[in-house]
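hi! just following up on the protien thing from before. the input was this:
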Amino acid sequence: MRRGRRHHRGVVGQELNLVPYLDIMVNLVLFMLVTITSFLSFTILNASIPQIAPDAAQVIEQQKKEELLLVVRVMKDKYRIDPSVQGGAAIAKRELPVKDGNYDVESLRQFMTELKARFKDEDKVLIVAEPSINYETIIKTMDSVRETEPSLEDLFPVVTLSIL
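and the predicted 3d structure came back as:
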């Protein structure tokens, strides 16, 4: 009989080496921190905070100046133009019905030209369209409020589009 020596087959007496694993994890964490901070610098928006109480001189200046808030609504059967004037005489709302299945973009352009003659410094218009209005109609409307001739942009070039 043999005593003293026992052989355990299949049992390995080594420890798990965690140093390479920890080295890789530290490098990954550092890489992620560097890339995240570089992406954050691109998402910063420069926004100004509105003034709660403007100066008295600014209030007087704004009251003297005529300002136009122009809204063009594109509906199933008509255009509705809602010009809102601050600091001046009001302008009546105007409706331009659809003629023979087509929107009256020429009358819309003519009315925009009349408004631009009165408000030379204004360049903004809000177009509000119903969800059922097709894309081509919206583009024609945008073109007719922006320009009298193609690529001239002499009326209201800053167009904001909204869907009801």
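The mean pLDDT is 82.
The chain is about 35% helix and 20% strand.
cheers
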